[in-house]
Amino acid sequence: MTSDLISFARGAPSLDIVDIDGLKAAADAALTTDPGGATGYGTAIGYPPLRKFLAEKHGVAEEQVLVTNGSMQADAFLFDELVEPGRAVVVERPTYDRTLLGLRQRGADVRAVTLDTDGIDTEELAALLESGVRPTFAHVIPNFQNPAGYTLSAAKRARLVELAEAHDFIVFEDDPYVQIRFAGEPLPTMLELDGGRGRVVYASSFSKTVAPGVRVGYLVGPADLIARIRVRATNTYISPNMLAQAIVYRFCVDGGLERSVATVNAALRERADVLCDALAKHIPDARFTKPDGGYFMWVELPDGVNVGELLTAAEQRGVTFVKGTDFLLDGGESTLRMAYSGVRTDQIEEGVARIADALGSLRVSAG
């Protein structure tokens, strides 16, 4: 492997687009204005001012919000509360690999429903429900989905909420990328469309907009569900990282979040453009849909390409990505996820060219 590894594998912003100065100022403000709250244990609800800020942002009561150590912790608490061994849970096909892992570890009967370029196939889901399957919840990443980069359409959002009401299940709206939009118009959340009926649990994160290292995420849901999860949180860690949450709060209210989102979105728009152009140039038979935001793009290579062999050959040439098979229960042998968030613009074409060279070597070997 060459020493200058180009990585399309990690869904994280590169350091050059993280607002370090803004975070320094936010940390100083947090420790100056509320040293006790920022450095104390606190409670499992999270840092109270941030919880209130999020409740106001989503138009819900504070009792409906729980702030956690990253959205993956929020996911884990929700899964622990809702997953019943042997009972169905719906996911998108493909979906985030950690979601699959968490659900399978808890014994869920995972039912994967096709993901189209405009989101989960709601009519396939409707047919599954009509067949008698009764899921506890459907896990959906509505904006710039991980791993595919696709966005759930407005019509499908409304249809999902309708199906949840008709068939008595919860929509788990996992939405960490919602603010990373660089094309098109924002769409209403399913939490908003639900109108307080309690059919939607919403999760998001500041890892993608502030910095991954802050590890601040949150859940919004029915007050009784959040109260039960709060007990789990108390028994897990007494309280989450109050200092990080206090810094994030000051970053938000002092204008840092708006500046950070603008910086990240401008950079990722450029990176997505360069990636699409490089794929079209170097791997013209690759199929992909240019994303309107987020960190990721799903790439389909011609049938017969073994993505495991391709990854090995690519890493020998100093470039890496994540195999599409990691995000699926089965299939996907010719697919891959490319994250453009953590790679500089000047590295992208070189990285794609290395993948193309690796692909060419496999084709030569196949003869």
TrEMBL record:
Concerning InterPro entries, the annotation shows: Aminotransferase_I/II_large, Class-I_PLP-dep_aminotransf, PyrdxlP-dep_Trfase, PyrdxlP-dep_Trfase_major, PyrdxlP-dep_Trfase_small
Single biological process term from Gene Ontology? alpha-amino acid metabolic process
Keywords in alphabetical order: Aminotransferase, Pyridoxal phosphate, Transferase
GO terms for MF: pyridoxal phosphate binding; transaminase activity
Keyword Mitochondrion annotated = no
So which cofactors does this thing need? pyridoxal 5'-phosphate
- CDD domains given in the database record: AAT_like (cd00609)
Q: Which residues form the Aminotransferase class I/classII large domain?
A: 5-355
Q: What is this protein called?
A: Aminotransferase
